[in-house]
Amino acid sequence: MRRGEILSLRWEYVNLGHTPRTFVVKGESWEVAPGWLLIEKSKSGRPRCLPMSGRVREVLHPLSQDETRGEFVFRNPRTGGGIGDIKTGFTSACRDAGIDNLTFHDLRHTWATRAAECGVPESVARDILGHSAKTMTGSYTHTSPQAMERAMELVADYSREKLFSLTAKSRQAG
Fold first, then answer.
1. pLDDT category of residue 134 using cuts at 50, 70 and 90
2. How far apart are alpha carbons 47 and 27 in whole angstroms?
3. Can you say whether residue 45 is alpha, beta or left, with left for phi > 0 and alpha for psi between -120 and 50 degrees?
4. Which of 31, 53, 76, 124 could be cross-linked to 152 through a Cys-Cys bond (beta carbons 3.0 to 4.6 Å apart)?
């Protein structure tokens, strides 16, 4: 998700339940499957739905149960509204972690790179990232919800798989 999509995400559009939920956004009906979320306004101006990885659902579920949670997933504690920007917080977190020269947008590039390394088809990554099709063939290619869910889980497990792979190789060498 883009920074603005994340910061404007409302709890009502995060489906952590077991049944689909339907919303009307700009006169258009959107069904949000269990484990998915609805981005009300994307860069293109149109809503879109995305699957959440299991790890994301694990983090969000207890937060969704908090009675003081407010309307937005990421809420400004002073105003109760959405957070407008995270430059200071993100910069501080990077500094504390010893990471130099990382922008929030770099995280999208990292996701796309890891998706490609995991074998996620380009059309699936394109749809998850919210990019438009650049070719006529691309505009005829549609991604299934199951393919998007698999891609999210593959990338969410990327570091675990890499660590396992490296550990297994070192054991074989030793």
1. low
2. 11
3. left
4. 53
Supply 106's token pair. Answer: 């770099």
Task: Return the amino acid letter for 58.
Answer: E
Residues 148, 152, 154: CA angle, nearest 5 degrees? 115
User: Which residues, 6+ apart, have CB-to-CB distance to 126 below 8 Å?
Assistant: 133, 138, 143
Residues 42, 30: Cα–Cα separation, whole Å: 14
CA proximity to 146, closest of 124, 114, 119 = 124
Q: Please tell me whether residue 89 adopts helix, strand or coil conformation.
A: helix
Quote the pTM value. Answer: 0.79
- Rounded Cα–Cα distance for residues 70 and 57 (Å): 18
Cα separation, 82 vs 69, whole angstroms? 11
What one-letter code names the amino acid at 166? L
81-131 pLDDT per residue, tens: 888 888 888 999 999 999 999 998 999 998 889 888 888 998 899 889 988
Q: Which residue has the higher pLDDT, 41 or 36?
A: 36
- Residues 6+ away with beta carbon under 8 Å from 84: 7, 76
